[in-house]
Specification:
With 74 residues, the chain is mostly helical. It has one domain. 51% of the residues lie in helices and 0% in strands. It contains 4 helices and no strands. Helix 1 crosses helix 3 and helix 2 crosses helix 3. The two termini are 21 Å apart.
Length: 74
């Protein structure tokens, strides 16, 4: 299985980008966007998408790994 890539620009996507795509577009999607392309899709600044990632993680959304797990993998 190949690593997921952004459907718009073809760049690699992170676990957070997959999760925020699922949260904002459709939980069942298999087409993912990187933050800049997702921001363009919604006509917002990339910071707004990053803010949503922080917000959903803080809410405990299970699509997002807890902060300490995400940084441990890097």
């Amino acid at each position: 299985m190949s690593a997921p890539v952004c459907v718009k620009c073809g760049g690699p996507v992170t676990a957070d980008e997959i999760a925020v795509t699922k949260r904002l577009i459709n939980r069942g999607t298999t087409d993912y966007y990187c933050v800049p392309c997702l921001a363009a899709y919604f006509d917002v600044r990339p910071e707004a998408i990053r803010g949503r990632i922080v917000h959903y993680r803080a809410m405990g959304c299970t699509l997002f790994a807890p902060e300490e797990e995400e940084t441990a993998d890097q």
